[in-house]
Amino acid sequence: MPGARSDLPEVIWVVDPEESTTTPGVEMNATALRKRVARSLLNDIEEVQYPSVTMMNRVEAVLEQDDLANYAEVLVKKIEARQYPSISLLNRLDGLLGQLEQAERNQRAERSDGGSAD
Fold it and tell me: Which of 1, 3, 7, 103 has its CA 20 to 30 A from that of 49?
């Protein structure tokens, strides 16, 4: 590799899924990287006035069920901040709320099924 220094040790970085820091010496795993990217994109979406559709699509593709409520909250704040929110943002939030409602129904069903098995 042109310009590479062979006298430097090779360092492999790892992403701690609980932290946004990296630690030398341990390999990264895909799950930790996905979480890190999702967290970064979610922060970007929260900070910009008009997040791109591509950015939101990417976040939605990697979000875990537990993170849906946080993402929905970000979108709600975007909608509340505008006098006339975009129809596409409203539609996106509607779909997300439908997913959250389904997840809540599934959790209630699991709890009730688990309680009757005793």
Answer: 103
Q: Alpha-carbon distance 51 to 72, whole Å?
A: 14
Residue 16 token pair: 């701690």
In sequence order, what are the residues at sequence separation of 6 or more whose Cβ sits closer than 8 angstroms to the Cβ of residue 43? none
Which pTM value belongs to this model? 0.67
Q: Any idea where the domains of the chain sit in the sequence?
A: 13-111
The residue written with tokens 């929110």 in the block is 85
CA angle at residue 78 from 84 to 60, to 5 degrees? 120
Tens digits of per-residue pLDDT, 40-91? 999 999 999 889 999 999 999 888 887 889 999 999 999 999 999 999 999 9
